[in-house]
Structures are given as C-alpha cells and as structure tokens.
Amino acid sequence: MTSATPDAISELLASARGHRPKSLACGEAEDALNVALALTVELAVANDRIDRLERMVADLRGEPVSTLRDVAYEGDVAAERRDAMEALLMRTMRIFLDPRRQSADHNGNR
Asked: Based on the structure, what is the number of domains in the chain?
C-alpha cells in the first residue's frame, strides 16, 4: 500500500458519485468497522516494513534495534513524518469525510 497525500485523498473523496452502499443494518457500526479494518491494514503493512527495515539496518550497523528506535528528527524530515501521519489519518478516517455519506444522512438513508 502506498501513502497518498491528504489532498489527493480529499480530491478522490470529493469526486465520489452516487450512494455509498451499506452491508450492516447499523450505519454507525459499519463506519466503525470500516475504520477498524483500514487501521488494521495500515498497521499490518507498517509493522512488516518496520520489522524488515529495522533488522536490515541494525544488522548492517552491527547495532541493536533499540538504537534505531531512539532517533529523533527535526526540520524537513519531521515535516515529512507529520505529512505521512496526516495522510494515514485521512485514509483511516475517510469514511467520515466521504460526501456520499453526508448526502445519505440528509436523505434519511444509511
């Protein structure tokens, strides 16, 4: 899974057309399930990448993995990490930003 910018995700959601179909009788439960599933996918991918990279770098440096985890960033790198976090939040919370959801709520449909 690739990270997209928050703006790209917002544009994608804004271009959505039609009614967003629901599978469960309770729309709120389905929304929560969708968020949980999105978070699970994000976490699984991130954990795999982190584990792989930490093992490789620690092995190359001859250092324990804990040394890598204690690094702090500032400036442009910190800004990139902040942007990546915002993109993650957009992907996981997109169900609440989807304009098809709002139009369904106004029409009394879920």
From this structure: 1
* Single pTM value for the model: 0.46
Tokens of 24: 């469960």
**CB neighbours of 98 closer than 8 A, spacing ≥ 6?**
13, 16, 20
Euclidean distance between CA atoms 104 and 46, whole angstroms: 33
Domain that holds residue 57: 26-105
Rounded Cα–Cα distance for residues 38 and 102 (Å): 20
Structure tokens, 29? 């439960």
pLDDT tens digits for 16-54?
777 677 777 888 888 888 888 988 998 999 999 999 999
